[in-house]
Amino acid sequence: MLTPAPRATKPQARPAAADLLTWYDRHRRSLPWRAEPGEIAAPYRVWLSEIMLQQTTVMAVKPFYLRFLDRFPTVADLAAAPVDAVMQAWAGLGYYSRARNLHACAIAVMERHGGRFPATEAELLTLPGIGAYTAAAVASIAFNQRAAAVDGNVERVMSRLFAIEEALPKSKPLIRALTLELVPDDRPGDFAQAVMDLGATICTPKRPACALCPWMVPCEARAAGTQELYPKKLKKVSGDLRRGAAFVVLRADDGILLRTRPPQGLLGGMVETPTSAWEPSYEPAHAMLDAPMEARWQRLPGIVRHVFTHFPLELTVFLAKVPKGTPAPADLRWTLRRDLHEEALPGVMKKVLAHALGSGAAPVKTPKAKDER
Ligand code: SF4
């Protein structure tokens, strides 16, 4: 006789911070900006790492963080440095507006707070480049204040834990409130880092390792077997994601290699850096086959995202520096960097140039970072 499949029931237990912290004490990631167990991290290090981690992975940030810290060991060193030196140390991390804000924030900490980061979320929010997420992360991790530091990882964990049906971004206030309810009085900084670690290592976007999760019992999505359906997201665009590579060539006399697109079709007649075809199956690992010239190409960390009416696009950006006098290949031309504003560059190309050369390369609104939402 067939027995009916067991019906998923709502878990009775509520998630407890203590269970997560017990797991964290055994499985915490060792990261260069983290304090040793039982210690509280230096605010400068926490802030620096959180700014670097906006839109950049932990793996990519680690070496940059260590080099940067070596060069600017304190907030006073950073504030005293010329902005060009800061930009130079930031080179390769992309999203250069973050580096400018970083420098401005260091100066503000010196001038307004005597070189000590303020401890509350409200005061941290008044500093350049610090938004809701970073303020909560610094307040909790560096000052042990109760705060809800909600990034993408935390959104995923909470959406699953409470089976939140409302779609992002509308569900953000609810997620924040539920997170804050869980923050314990005694170890808010460890709690913030524990949820981040859980999201990064166990409650991953695909195939979460629920059997290893300290919140397996109270998790509503796991009880229903619907983990991967959360977080619910508003469908933003129709059309398949396309991918491609963009090639930025900088000549020693500040010339940038450009071309004009054909008059018909998408972005007809507009100007661009050379790119590959844009296709759903494009593989950046093979991008050198599409490079416009022989050069020492550097693949930049991060990705440039742009949404056209009919499809979203992700471009991997490659940068090459070539000597003065290098001729332009056929159908391409050089434009001096200072004259870029005279070129008909579409938004996506301004993003590419800003990603490769810094936000001053062309007037562009850079994609929103976590703190700029
Ligand atoms: S039980 Fe699974 S889905 Fe739920 S929080 Fe843990 S890892 Fe995520």
Describe the model.
This protein is 36% helix and 10% strand. It is α+β, with helices and mostly antiparallel strands and 373 residues long. The protein has 2 domains: 17-229, Orthogonal Bundle (Endonuclease III, domain 1), CATH 1.10.340; 242-362, Alpha-Beta Complex (Nucleoside Triphosphate Pyrophosphohydrolase), CATH 3.90.79.10. Strands 1, 4, 5 and 6 form a 4-stranded mixed beta sheet that branches. The chain has a 3-stranded antiparallel beta sheet with strand order 3-2-7, with no helix packed on it. Strand 5 and strand 6 form a beta hairpin. The chain is globular and about 70 Å long. The protein starts with 16 loop residues before the first helix and ends in a 16-residue tail after the last helix. Residues 1-7 and 362-373 have low confidence and may be disordered. The protein binds iron/sulfur cluster.
Kindly report how far apart the N and C termini lie.
Answer: 56 Å
String of helices and strands: HHHHHHHHHHHHEEEEEEEH
Find the CATH topology of the largest domain: Endonuclease III, domain 1
Beta-strand level of the residues, as a percent range? 5-15%
How many discrete structural domains? 2
Average pLDDT: 88
Helix content: 25-40%
At CATH's second level, what is the architecture of the largest domain? Orthogonal Bundle
Bound molecules: iron/sulfur cluster
Q: How many DSSP helices?
A: 13
Taking all Cα atoms into account, the compactness measure Rg is 23 Å
Structural class: alpha+beta
List unreliable stretches of 5+ residues: 1-7, 362-373
Q: What is the number of E strands? A: 7
Task: Give the name of the CATH superfamily of the largest domain.
Answer: Hypothetical protein, domain 2
> Per the principal axes of the C-alpha atoms, what is the gross shape?
globular
CATH class of the largest domain: Mainly Alpha
Major sheet characteristics:
4 strands, mixed
